[in-house]
């Protein structure tokens, strides 16, 4: 693209945080940067040509293409920029080419593990949590652990406990003193498990474990221990709300950068598929049909960006048109700026599902996002305008990642469908009448006692209820009486007065 085309192209960038990759005419990445607003930051390169820096003038003159990777925060953009620069070593990047590392909290692999802060991750059997961007965050977590969930800090080899007097930290409540046999290995391992849950961000699970112990201690009248556990729970809530870590990148052949690079080459994608959207459909014999979109970023699922759509325009069993509706609604939101666009779309199914998905994108004027489908029977990958599918080896990491996206979309689709179906069963039969909502249905059940009682009312009495009237009363009675006596006993919404009142509240 020339400069004018680039300026027009950049206007479509999102006003969101992320990383941008600039390429030269040969497709080589020449510069990687981060931005609080991708649209504003990248546009700034083309506002004028008289930059003071010769390096910057040369960079702008060399740019022929720009791609972006959306992140959810500036912190994630910072970390992503750092990693991509180290991976690609772009010519015009200078500052981050050095091998700067972020901090990890390490739980050692000893019999009685310790906590260590390190910037080097080794294959030594230890548990590494992080990386952490903010040093103050690491310090806050370590202070919390030291005060409420302390582990030993001494470097002594503890092959077996020795008889003796524990150090001052035991007296201050800062150590369990395994060196002197004052706690069992099982008790110490439980404490280590608590610490790992806290550091991995699983605060809810840890709090549930601590709450059970607190209740038990209170029942056994160990009130001091119960109070300590209560204070621990409160402290965990405070810190866990402020914790900002990111998923770590595995090493070796499973390095997700390598996998995404391999995927880009296998499918001839224009840019690295940093964000992948996966789609699936679920229903029960054409009823309660739900379409879903799941999102993988950096090779990891991001459930906060999952979306589900109750299908509205399709009746009966028609997965193809349901898929088309799902993509249309999903990417209409993206075009409105409500959601970021992906670099790759994965459809669960074969070439027919792919065709209907492409119809949805064409209808929205989206022609620059690669789309593929994965057929489950033989795990074949179908691409647009290609008759023969691509068959990857079953051990290929690219196929494993696609299967992960496909399986996660399938799981989320089934869960969403079951939830919708269960909610429909809870719905009162009265709510199926046009003009009756949940509040008005609850009012009627509260007033008359039950759905059966409403069905047996004279039309005049029902019409006299607040907000009903003759026409609506007639529709209600017609709906309730169409089921007959046999089904009225098992009718959804046959609530008692108390249950209806509770629902109304």
Automatic annotation (TrEMBL):
GO CC, one annotated term: excinuclease repair complex
Organism: Cloacibacillus porcorum
Keyword Transmembrane helix attached: no
Domain GIY-YIG: 15-94
Biological process per Gene Ontology, one example term: nucleotide-excision repair
Alphabetic keyword roster: Cytoplasm, DNA damage, DNA excision, DNA repair, Excision nuclease
Pfam families: GIY-YIG, HHH_5, UVR, UvrC_RNaseH_dom
Upper classification of the organism: Bacteria, Thermotogati, Synergistota, Synergistia, Synergistales
Protein name: Excinuclease ABC subunit C
Top-rank lineage group of the source organism: Bacteria
Domain UVR, first and last residues per copy: 204-239
GO molecular function annotations of the record: DNA binding; excinuclease ABC activity
Domain UvrC family homology region profile: 258-361
InterPro entries the UniProt entry points to: GIY-YIG_endonuc, GIY-YIG_endonuc_sf, GIY-YIG_UvrC_Cho, Hlx-hairpin-Hlx_DNA-bd_motif, RuvA_2-like, UVR_dom, UVR_dom_sf, UvrABC_protein_C
Disordered: annotated segments: 483-505
């Amino acid at each position: 693209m020339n400069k004018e085309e680039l300026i027009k192209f950049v206007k479509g960038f999102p006003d969101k945080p992320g990383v941008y990759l600039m390429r030269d005419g040969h497709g080589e990445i020449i510069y990687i940067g981060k931005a609080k607003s991708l649209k504003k930051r990248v546009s700034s390169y083309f506002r004028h040509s008289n930059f003071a820096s010769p390096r910057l003038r040369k960079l702008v003159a060399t740019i022929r293409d720009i791609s972006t990777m959306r992140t959810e925060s500036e912190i994630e953009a910072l970390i992503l920029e750092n990693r991509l620069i180290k991976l690609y070593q772009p010519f015009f990047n200078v500052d981050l080419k050095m091998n700067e590392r972020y901090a990890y909290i390490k739980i050692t692999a000893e019999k009685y593990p310790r906590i260590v802060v390190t910037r080097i991750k080794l294959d030594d059997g230890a548990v590494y949590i992080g990386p952490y961007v903010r040093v103050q965050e690491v310090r806050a977590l370590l202070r919390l652990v030291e005060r409420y969930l302390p582990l030993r800090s001494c470097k002594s080899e503890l092959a077996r406990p020795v008889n003796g007097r524990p150090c001052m930290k035991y007296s201050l409540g800062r150590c369990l003193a395994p060196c002197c046999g004052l706690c069992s290995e099982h008790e110490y391992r439980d404490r280590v498990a608590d610490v790992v849950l806290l550091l991995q961000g699983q605060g809810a699970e840890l709090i549930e474990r601590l709450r059970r112990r607190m209740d038990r201690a209170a029942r056994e009248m160990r009130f001091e221990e119960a109070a300590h556990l209560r204070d621990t729970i409160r402290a965990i809530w405070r810190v866990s709300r402020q914790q900002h870590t990111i998923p770590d990148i595995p090493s070796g052949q499973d390095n997700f950068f390598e996998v995404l690079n391999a995927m880009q080459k296998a499918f001839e994608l224009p840019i690295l598929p940093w964000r992948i959207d996966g789609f699936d459909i679920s229903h029960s014999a054409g009823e309660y049909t739900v379409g879903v979109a799941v999102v993988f970023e950096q090779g990891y699922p991001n459930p906060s960006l999952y979306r589900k759509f109750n299908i509205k325009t399709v009746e009966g069993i028609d997965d193809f048109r349901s898929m088309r509706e799902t993509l249309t609604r999903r990417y209409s939101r993206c075009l409105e700026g409500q959601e970021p666009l992906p670099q790759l779309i994965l459809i669960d199914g074969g070439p027919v599902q792919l065709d209907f998905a492409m119809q949805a994108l064409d209808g929205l004027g989206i022609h620059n996002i690669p789309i593929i489908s994965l057929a489950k029977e033989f795990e074949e990958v179908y691409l647009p305008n290609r008759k023969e599918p691509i068959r990857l080896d079953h051990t290929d990491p690219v196929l494993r990642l696609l299967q992960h996206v496909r399986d996660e979309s399938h799981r989320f689709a089934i869960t969403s469908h079951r939830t919708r179906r269960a909610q429909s069963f809870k719905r009162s039969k009265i709510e199926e009448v046009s003009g009756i909502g949940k509040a008005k249905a609850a009012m009627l059940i509260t007033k008359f006692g039950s759905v059966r009682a409403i069905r047996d009312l004279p039309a005049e009495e029902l019409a006299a209820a607040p907000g009903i009237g003759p026409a609506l009363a007639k529709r209600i009675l017609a709906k309730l009486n169409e089921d007959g006596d046999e089904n009225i006993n098992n009718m959804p919404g046959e609530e008692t007065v108390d249950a209806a009142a509770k629902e109304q509240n």
